Amino acid sequence: MRMTKLSAATLVATTTFSITGCSGTGSIRDTYNTADVRFAKNLISAQQRTLTLMELARVRTQDRGSLGSIAGAEAEARAQIKMVAGYIKAWGESPNSTTLRHAAEVDDPLLRGKEEVTALRSLDGASFDRALELTIAAHKRERIARARSQVEDGYDQLMLSLARSVLAAPGEQFPP
Q1: What's the pTM?
Q2: From 33-47, 69-83, 99-113, 153-167, the region with the lowest mean pLDDT
Q3: Residue 64: inside a domain, yes or no?
Q4: CATH no. for residue 145?
Q5: C-alpha closest to that of 176 among 153, 148, 157
Q6: Three-class DSSP category at 31
């Protein structure tokens, strides 16, 4: 199976959240809870994993036509990482989500994703494209579960808005 232009667009759309129109008032330190911190740190990890998948796709995909959207998606992912990390710092928390202790607390997808990336690095062409499609589908399911949890437990309006945008995105209606 070839990685189609739709697949590349799906990778971009399912890993980038819209943040326009999200604003709040009051002290930022008074607007969050532990669910918000967990969601934000997982968001950073997921975006970092997305960047890794995009790097692999650039080199290993059979569908060279899908590569045009990757550069823009990378810039968006990096901008979101920077924005969310700044938000976490404003809360007085550390945005670092790569320590083993933190990974156990938030189920860090980056650490779990190392095996996934190793497997993808061993593939090329159509076999890579098929494995990437399956990986993207798994990431979508993870993201939806985290977004649902955030909507239920979160407090911060920006994080709630990001979670709701995940749940409202076309193609994101997986069964509970």
Answers
A1: 0.73
A2: 99-113
A3: yes
A4: 1.20.1260.10
A5: 148
A6: coil
